[in-house]
Target: Transcription elongation factor, mitochondrial
Amino acid sequence: MFSEFDSSNASISPELRQENAKALDSCYTEEQRAVILQRLNTATESELEQVKLLRGRKSVNIVKYRTRHGPFSSLESVINVPLLKYKSAIMVFDSILNPDNKRKRNKGKVHLAKFIKPDVNRAHLEDASSIISIVCGTNKIAWAHMDRARTVLDWQQAECQSFMKGTYLASDYLEDISSVISSFPAADFFLVEKPSISPQNTSLFPVMVHLRTVEAMLFALLSQAREPGSPPKVLNMMRISVGRHFDLMVGDCRTSGAETLRKMMTDSVMKRDPRVLFPHDLVLKHRNSFQMSSRNKGEEMCDALLQAVAFFELLQE
Model:
C-alpha cells in the first residue's frame, strides 16, 4: 500500500495519519525514511532549526537525544524526543522531504501586517542594513542595535526615574526618553515593541497608559519629516509575534526568553556559524544578566535583542 506513496509529495492524508498513529514508519517509503533519518541524525542544531517546527528547544533536544541514545533507527523513535509528538513529527518529516515546496508556499506570504505596523513595503525592510530594537518596561528602556547579518552592534538599557511616578508628568517623561534616545546610533529603522495588554484587564490599566505614553513619545521623537512616499522609520513590532517566533507562548501568555538568549550567547562563543554574533565585550558584560536570579534586571534587554533577531529572521521566511 505505502510502496506506491508519491515521494515528490510526502504530505499524507488525515485518514492515513489516523490509521497509522502508532506506526510512523509505515506512512513513508523506505527511500523517504532514509532521507528523514539522515537529516535528523547528521544535521547540526543550526541546520535543524531551518526545518519547520524545529526552531528553538526542539532542535536542541534532538541533538541531546541522539548524543545520549545514538542515531535514530526508526521514525517512531523520534517521538521519544521531548516536545516532539506524533502530529508535530509528521509536520517535521514532511518539511524535510519537501523543503522546496515549503519555500514556495512561504515566499511572499509572510504577512508583514501580522508583526509590523504601520504597513511598509517589504523591499524597504529587506534593504535595511541595521535596525534599533526598543523595549520599554515600567522603569527602564532597553535597546539593541543589530545589522542584517545579525551581529549585535550595541546593546544597552537605561533607568528612567520618572516612569510611573505621581501623575505621569509629561515633561519628566520627555526628559527621560530624550536622554535615552540621544545615545542611539544611526539606523534604517527603529522597532518599538507593541505590548499585548488587553484594555479589558483593568488591573493593568496604569501600566497600559504608561506604555502607550512612552510609545507615543518614542514615535514623535524618532520620526523625522519625510517626503511623500518614503517609508516610515519608526515601526511597531508585535510582542506576541516575537513570542510565537521563539516558541515562548503558553496559551495567550508569553514566557521568558532568557534561556533562548543564553543559548544564543553561548553559541556565539562556541560555534563557527552562530545564529547571532555577539562581540566578546558584550558577552562578558551581560553574561550574568539573564540568570533566573536576575530575570527582572535583564528582561527588557532580553526582549529587545530577541525582537531584533525575530525581525530579520521573519523577513527571510
User: Anything to note?
Assistant: Confidence is low (pLDDT under 50) at residues 1-22, 102-110. The longest helix spans residues 295-316. The chain is about 45% helix and 15% strand.
